[in-house]
Design a protein that fits this description.
Elements: H1 6-9, E1 17-18, E2 27-37, E3 43-53, H2 55-58, E4 65-68, E5 73-79, E6 82-83, E7 87-89, E8 92-95, E9 104-113, E10 123-127, E11 130-134, E12 154-163, E13 169-172, E14 175-185, E15 188-201, E16 208-211, E17 214-221, E18 227-234, H3 243-260, E19 268-274, E20 281-282, E21 287-291, H4 304-319, E22 328-329, H5 335-354, H6 356-376, E23 387-388, H7 397-430, E24 434-435, H8 437-448, H9 457-460, E25 466-474, E26 477-485, E27 500-507, E28 513-522, E29 526-531, E30 539-542, E31 551-553, H10 558-567, H11 571-591, H12 598-609, H13 615-621, H14 627-636, H15 643-660, H16 662-672, H17 682-700, H18 704-716, H19 720-732, H20 738-749, H21 753-764, H22 771-778, H23 789-802, H24 804-807, H25 813-826, H26 830-837, H27 848-862, H28 869-880
Parallel strand pairs: 2-12, 18-19, 19-21, 22-24, 25-31
Antiparallel strand pairs: 1-23, 2-3, 3-9, 4-8, 5-6, 5-9, 7-8, 10-11, 11-16, 12-15, 13-16, 14-15, 17-18, 20-21, 25-26, 26-29, 27-28, 27-30
The protein binds O-methyl-L-tyrosine (0A1) and zinc ion.
């Protein structure tokens, strides 16, 4: 029996899956044994799966065996050794209950797949000669027929056979149990390896890797005294770039033991770096697979930001071992159960490692840039969505970043001890299970005694709440009246009040804190909180530490912002005060109602020269907001954004700081330079960030001296954290020397794909008139490979997402360029196409002419008949929302 794969590859109608329709599986799996016979174009997989009837469903009578399968050629199938011919469907196969022997049976089947033709990078594929897998969310069904859903957890045994020459290393989840030689065949020497994973897992955590790899090895003794071997596998030549990832892994392992009492549970933990990967990394049990961008680093090739991301992502994937793998999701609607919680955990880890203030500011910047943006547009959805067509489209900032904020608010409400108690209960109660948000919430209710039913709206209600603040001061009584509203989002017009923890502190007129941080719990649409016994009218510091993912709508007077920037004891709000002023100045410049105030420049000067502050924090305060942030503000206030006008205003602000503070900036630039060898730790990265901020502001004036400073920095740098900002500044400011330096850079790094990504990205982000033509030319450059997701994102993704001036060119050429490439990539890699297509989500923010141009491009994409279900869902949601 060899059905062709054509029926499975024809376009499927848009069919949605709904949370309300969840039904427990009819059949559960005891164990799975998979034999892989690897060959690039014809890999054979023999599966032996023991099924048993789900006791929960047994009362409902006999049930057909329905298995998921995509793009599989079925070679043979049998039940308890007797050949069967299942009905093949578009989505898999069905075996009628009448052909099943009872409540327990062994299913065997052989499938054939073509890893070399798998450009979607989902299932088993080949990256630079290396076999690797990506099974989350629904990739396992491209390997064999299976109930590919997270609530089916099973033990896996894997045997891999491959050519020794091309694939000397054979890896799968769990522990190795056997290796050996096989008789040579026509293609050369063959060998095998066997692996066994003792922990039951859903199929999305399955992983296999085979290739020519070398490992960077280490080990860690767990709190209970077990030795765990740690291995990071990379391609030969990259082994010298794994030290930081390994160090991050060990710190993350110790942190999870110390802060959460969670130990690793196998004797071996492996990471593999691959160059072709749709996302950042994947937490497969015992065998994490990473985009090489988040593993490989050396001082010469990686920036401080790269190092920080490596640390965070290595930790994130490791933390999934408990929050995701041992306790997984019942269904994909519960994705935030593992992702929100794990992001929150990696953020706490980064805060402990790098300082909580700057980590929090960074996290909030990302939340606002990605999640608030999502909430404001047609793709808005709840942290736990209720319906999807393609689940891969829901690995979003809302599920991840807002999901993490929800966990952070829970922790604020029950306190750090209550939080630890609740998590302990969760681990103890649900270890080995596939769970829901309700079960998670129940643990918090049981551990804290609190009713969290209203709080649960954070998971089901989409949109960013707006908080308004009114003050009253009378006879020594100070009253804060807080009100909340959440604007409508697609499919949810009426919103209910949420539980919003608002952390507030009060400052006296001399800058002393008269009321240390208190958490006010806003549960009604409007509520007042009164503070007694104050000698004078206080200055409020509201939403300290950004205690909830809301927008505070308060016209803070400039003098008050300046006061908070100078005196607030909460570093987040100190930064926020500076940011708020900068946004107001930008808005005033754009609509012609305001000017750059001397007070703002003085406030920045004060921060610049205040050595008592952490340099990383000072670098953040001195950053002028970006175009996207101002567009969001304008749209949030009901206006329409013009990226050119915003660009002009922000440029003027940077130039003013550069001109008026040039003496301070030059001095600080010189004094933060260091002759010490590069080290990626936060204490060394902070001064570098400040130094490069100074350089950027100086160069914004277009001064030849500043350009010379940047050129010297570029030419003498012994590390990428100094070289890249210098080059970026020169290119973006249009310095005459820029092209020559770009060429030098390419010549030096042409053999390092990750550095070439930076070279592409910095050119794509240049806010210059010639950028689109340059990017078009780069698409034909030998260093560009559009089928590699990192390269596609570095050039085309960056132009669309990080270069508003060029992307939003009034003639629509930027939009056309993006749409052309999306249509081209969609036929090859739907997942990455759909993600990049999301850049259009903001189209209603802009003037009507631009809106019409963007809409036309979205319609052109939607008109492609063979469009993938991924991209079609995204485009149609954007057009409809
Ligand atoms: N679970 C991973 C993210 C991830 C999701 C989907 C993927 O392929 C479609 C790959 C990775 C994480 O949270 O890191
Ligand atoms: Zn994750």
């Amino acid at each position: 029996m060899r059905p062709d794969s054509a029926p499975q590859s024809t376009p499927t109608p848009q069919q949605s899956t709904r949370l309300a329709d969840y039904r427990a599986p009819d059949w559960l799996v005891d164990s799975v044994a998979l034999d892989f016979d690897l060959a690039p174009s014809a890999t054979r997989i023999k599966a032996r799966i023991i099924f048993h009837r789900n006791p929960e469903r047994a009362g409902e009578g006999p049930a057909d065996l329905v298995l998921d399968g995509r793009l599989l050629a079925l070679v043979s199938a049998a039940v308890d050794g007797r050949p069967v011919e299942p009905e093949l469907t578009r989505e898999g196969l069905r075996l009628p209950a009448a052909l099943l022997p009872g409540d327990r049976f062994t299913w065997t089947c052989e499938t054939e797949i073509d890893p070399k033709a798998n450009t979607a990078l989902e299932g088993l594929y080949i990256s630079k000669g290396m076999y690797c897998t990506q099974c989350e969310a629904e990739g396992f069904r491209k390997i064999t027929f299976y109930p590919d859903r997270p609530d089916v957890m099973a033990r896996f045994r894997v045997r891999i056979e491959a050519d020794r020459a091309t694939a000397p290393v054979l890896l799968a989840n769990g522990n190795p149990t056997a290796t050996g030689d096989l008789p040579a065949d026509h293609s050369g020497d063959r060998h095998y390896a066997e692996w066994e994973d003792p922990h039951p897992k859903p199929a999305y955590l399955f992983a296999l890797v085979a290739g020519d790899l070398v490992s960077h090895d280490d080990s860690l003794t767990t709190a209970s005294g077990r030795e765990v071997a740690l291995k990071i596998y990379v391609r030969p030549g990259d082994e010298g770039k794994c030290a930081y990832a390994m160090d991050s892994l060990k710190r993350a392992m110790r942190w999870d033991e110390a802060t959460h009492g969670r130990e690793y549970d196998l004797d071996l933990f492996m990471i593999v770096a691959v160059d072709d990967f749709n996302m950042g990394a994947m937490e497969n049990k015992g065998l994490n697979i990473f985009n090489s961008k988040y593993i490989l680093a050396s001082p010469e090739t990686a920036t401080d930001r790269d190092y920080a991301l490596i640390e965070a992502i290595v930790a994130h994937e490791y933390f999934h071992n408990w929050t995701g793998n041992r306790i997984t999701c019942r269904d994909w609607f519960q994705l935030c159960l593992k992702e929100g919680l794990t992001v929150f955990r990696d953020q706490q880890f980064s805060g402990d490692e790098r300082g909580h203030a700057v980590t929090r500011i960074d996290d909030v910047k990302i939340l606002r840039a990605r999640q608030f943006r999502e909430d404001q547009g047609p793709l808005a959805h709840p942290v736990r969505p209720e319906e999807y067509i393609e689940i891969n489209n829901f690995y979003t900032a809302t599920v991840y970043e807002k999901g993490a904020e929800v966990i952070g608010m829970l922790r604020t409400l029950v306190g750090p001890e209550g939080y630890r108690k609740a998590l302990d209960l969760y681990f103890q109660r649900h270890d080995g299970q596939a769970c829901t948000i309700e079960q998670f919430r129940q643990c918090f209710e049981d551990a804290s005694g609190r009713d969290l039913s209203q709080f649960a709206r954070w998971w089901s209600q989409a949109g960013t709440p707006r908080l308004t603040v009114e003050e009253d001061w009378q006879d020594g009584r100070y009253t804060l009246t807080l009100s909340q509203t959440t604007p409508p989002t697609p499919g949810q017009t009426d919103k209910l009040p949420l539980v919003i923890p608002v952390a507030v502190g009060l400052l006296g007129p001399n800058g002393d804190e008269v009321l240390p941080t208190q958490v006010l719990e806003l549960t009604e649409a409007e509520q007042s909180f009164t503070f007694e016994g104050l000698g004078s009218r206080p200055i409020p510091s509201i939403l300290r530490g950004f205690s909830a993912p809301v927008i505070v709508e308060r016209q803070t007077p400039d003098a008050e912002s300046a006061f908070l920037l100078a005196h607030d004891t909460d570093p987040f709000n100190r930064w926020e005060a500076g940011r708020g002023t900068a946004v107001r100045i930008a808005l005033g410049l754009i609509d012609g109602t305001g000017d750059i105030s001397g007070a703002w420049v003085e406030g920045m000067a004060a921060v610049l020269t205040d050595d008592s502050h952490d340099p990383a924090f000072r670098a953040m305060v001195l950053e002028v907001p970006g175009i996207d942030e101002i567009s969001r503000e304008i749209a949030g206030r009901g206006g329409l954004a013009d990226p050119d006008a915003i660009h002009t205003a922000l440029r003027e602000m940077r130039q003013t700081l550069g001109n008026e503070l040039s003496t301070h900036l030059t001095h600080l630039y010189e004094s933060t330079k260091s002759d010490r060898p590069y080290s990626p730790d936060a204490a060394s990265a902070g001064p570098r960030a400040l130094k490069n901020r100074c350089l950027g502001l100086l160069a914004a004036t277009g001064s030849a001296d500043a350009f010379a400073l940047a050129e010297t920095q570029f030419r003498t740098a012994d590390n990428m954290s100094d070289a890249l900002p210098a080059l970026t500044i020169l290119v973006h400011e249009g310095a005459p020397v820029a092209d020559a330096l770009l060429e030098d850079f390419h010549a030096r790094w042409q053999h390092d794909p990750l550095v070439i990504d930076k070279w592409l990205a910095l050119q794509a982000a240049a806010p210059l008139p010639g950028t689109l033509a340059r990017v078009e030319a780069l698409t034909g450059h030998p260093s560009f490979d559009w089928k590699n997701p990192n390269k596609f994102r570095a050039l085309i993704g960056v132009l669309a997402a990080a270069n508003p001036v060029v992307f939003h060119r009034p003639d629509g050429a930027g939009y056309r360029f993006l749409a052309d490439w999306l249509i081209r990539l969609d036929a090859v890699n739907p997942q990455t196409t759909a993600r990049v297509a999301g850049t259009f989500e903001t189209f209603r923010r802009y003037d009507t002419a631009r809106q019409a141009l963007m809409r036309a491009e979205l319609e052109r994409i939607a008109g492609v008949e063979s469009l993938s279900k991924n991209t079609r869902e995204m485009v149609e949601r954007m057009l409809a929302g």
